[in-house]
Amino acid sequence: MVFPVSPRQPNLLKALETVGNAAKDNNEKIRQRENRMKIFEIQTHFDSSKKPDLFGDPSRMFIKEGPLIKLCRRGPKEFFFWLFSDKIVYGQASGETTYQFHREIDLRYAPTCRLGFVHRSSPRGF
After folding, report:
1. pLDDT digits (tens, 9 = 90+) for 49-86
2. Residue 120 CA: distances (Å) to CA of 74, 76, 98
3. Is 10 helix (H, G, I), strand (E, B) or coil?
4. What pLDDT, in 10s, does the model give residues 2-56?
5. DSSP type of residue 96
6. Does residue 39 contact residue 51 with C-beta atoms inside 8 Å?
7. Which of 108, 110, 103, 107 lies closest to 52, judged by CA?
8. Which of 43, 51, 65, 95 is the most exposed place for a label (fewest CB within 10 A)?
9. If you ran DSSP here, which 8-state letter would residue 95 be given?
10. Other residues' Cβ atoms within 10 Å of the Cβ of residue 54
11. From CA 92, how far away is CA 97, in angstroms rounded?
12. pTM of this structure
């Protein structure tokens, strides 16, 4: 059975498109707000002695966080890293939820390398 085309159909399609665009805009604003709240939360975890400037770039996006081992002169040390769209920030735990800021690395100027796996065998071979 074929239904007749309503004379209101173009208006309904335009309204549907308008509502869809509004929903996309709202979802994007919510995502941006959640990102700003996460960056603010990260900023509050640093002790008051020195803090990185995480609010300098409004387009900065938080990507991932977690502990990593950094190889230092005196041996491996565990630091907590935060990866953003334009920089990496890391610090050392100075309490249960606080961190001492160590350094930030601007990714625009950081060298890039190809990641791969290295097979290390014992001195005697396999």
Report:
1. 788 888 888 899 999 999 998 888 888 989 999 999 99
2. 23, 19, 37
3. helix
4. 667 778 888 888 999 999 999 999 999 999 999 999 999 999 998 877 888 888 8
5. S
6. no
7. 103
8. 95
9. S
10. 20
11. 11
12. 0.72
